Amino acid sequence: MFKRGKLGGLDGGMYRPLTDSDILSMHEGIVKLMSEIGIKVANKKAFGLFKDKGLKTDEEKSLVFMSQSFVEDCIDAAPSEIILHGRGNPDNTIIVGGKRVHYGSGGTALNILDLETGEKRLSTLKDVQQVSRLLDYLNNAHFQVIPVYPNDLPIDQVDINRFFAAINNTNKHVQGGVYTVEGTKQVVEMASMIAGGLEKLQREPFISFITCVISPLEIDQVYGELLMTCAESGLPLSIPAEPLTGATGPVTIAGNVANLCAETIAGLCLAQLVNRGTPILMACTSTSTDLRTMGYASGSVEEGLINSCAAQMAQFYGLPFYGTAGQSDSKIMDAQAGFEGAITNLLVGMAGGNFIHDALGLLEFCMTASYEKYVMDNEILGEVMRVLKGVRVTPETLALDVTASVGPGGNFIQEDHTFEHMRDEHFAPVVADRQQRENWMAAGSKDTFERCHDIALDAIENHKPIPVDEEIVKAIRAKFPNFVQ
Are 239 and 40 spatial neighbours (Cβ–Cβ below 8 Å)? Predict the structure, then answer.
C-alpha cells in the first residue's frame, strides 16, 4: 500500500476563461434571468415563502421574479467558506471556499464493473461500502460524494443505509443526495447519534447533502421539498444545476453558464428563506450534449469550460463552489477514460473549483463506476495537484550554490541538495510504470488496468478506516427498523 499524503487545499485560479468584463456581463444576464424571465417554483410551500417576501409572482405559471436586492441579500446570508469535517480524523477537515481546490468522488452510478469478473452489473450496498473504503485509502480523494446506488434496497431503506455505509467506511467528509423526506430526516438523526448530538454535528459536520434544481429555471415539487428539509437541518448543502447545452440549456457556453448560475442561486435563495445562514455550495453539474445525437456527454472538454466559468462566477459572488470534472464516456478503463478525465480535472482545478466531485471512477455517462478507474484517477489527480503547487523560485530552489559546487561537466546525483528536494519537488507515481522494458516484463508485463486492479484489491482487503462505535451502531439498529447493516 502506498503512503497517503495530505489532503488538498492548494489554490487554483491561474486559468480564467472569463475576463473581468465577461464576468460583469454574465452577472447582468443572471440578474435578468432571475428578475425578468423568472424561476418556476412548482412546490407550493416554497412558492409561498417567496411570495411572503413581497416578490413579484405569477401564480398561474408558478413563476417567481427575484429582484437583484433580494438575491444579493440571500447571497450575503450564506457563508463564504464552509468547513467540512471528516469523522474520526481531524486531518481530513477541508475548508471550502476562495480558490482552494479539493477533489472527490460522485455520481451515484447505478452500475459498476465487477472487481472479479470485470463485467458490468447493478451496484449494491456492498459496493457502497467497498468503494468508500477504497476512497478513504486514495490520497488524492479529499472527500467522498457517495459514489454508487444500492440497487438491492427498496427506496425507503436507501438514504439511511447508503449514508451509513459510506460513513462507516471512510474518515473523510461524506456528501450525498437524498431520495425521500423521511429518509433525509433519518440520516440527520443517525449522524447526530454518531456525532453526539445535532448541535455538535452542525458545528463539525462530517456529512452534507445534495439537492438539485431542474433545468431550465425550475424548483420542482420533489426536490423543492428535499431542499427545504435539508436546509432545516442546518447542515451544508450543495444545490447543483445541470443544464445541457442545446437541450435543457442554451447551446452556447456563456448562455449555459448564465442559466445554471441563476438556477443554483435560486435554490440558495430558497434555503436562506427556510433557514437563514444555511451553508450552501453554489453548484454545477452542467455539461454539453453530443452534437451528433444531442445525447448527454460527460467526458467533453466543454464540461471543463462550463465548470471553470461557473467557478469564476462563484468566486465573484463569494460563494463556495461545487463543480464537476473527471468523468469519461468510455465504457471501459482505456485511454479515452484517462484523457477525458484528466483534461477536465485539470481545467476545473486550475480555475479554482473548490469541491470538484465526479473526479474519480466514473464511466459511461456517469452511469457506471470502475474500481480500477478510481485508482487511475487518483494518480491523475496527484499530477494535477502538482501542477497547482506551482514552481517555487527562491535562492534555495534556483540552486546556484550547488551548481557552482558541481561545476560544468559534473553531475548532481550525490548532492545533498538533490536528496533534500527530490520528494517535495517531483510527483512520484504509483500506477505509472517507469521501469526498463526488461524489468517490466520480469514483473509480469502488467498494464495500467492490471496495476490499478491490484491496488484496488489490496486497499479493499487491507485498509481499515476507523469504524463507527459498535454501541452506537446497536442504538441505530434499535431505532430505525429500515437499517439493515
Answer: no
The gap between the terminal CA atoms of the chain, to the nearest Å, is 28
Per residue in 189-231, pLDDT (tens digit) is 999 999 999 999 999 999 999 999 999 999 999 999 999 999 9
In whole angstroms, give the CA distance from residue 284 to residue 305. 12
Q: Which three cell numbers stand for residue 100?
A: 482552494
Query: Is 10-17+77-389 in CATH node 3.20.20.480?
Result: yes
> Angle of helix 44-52 relative to helix 221-233, nearest 10 degrees?
60
pLDDT band at 271 (very low <50, low <70, confident <90, very high): very high
Contact 354, 100 (CB under 8 A): yes
The values of phi and psi at residue 122, to 5°, are -65, 140
Separation CA 372–CA 82 (nearest Å)? 31
Q: Within a 10 A sphere around the Cβ of 336, how many other Cβ atoms? A: 15
Residue with grid cell 520480469, as numbered in its chain: 442
Q: Where are the domains of the chain?
A: 10-17+77-389, 395-425
Residue carrying C-alpha cell 540552486: 399
How does pLDDT run across 17-69, given as a tens digit for each residue?
Answer: 999 999 999 999 999 999 999 999 999 999 999 999 999 999 999 999 999 99
DSSP label at residue 367: T
pLDDT of residue 3: 35
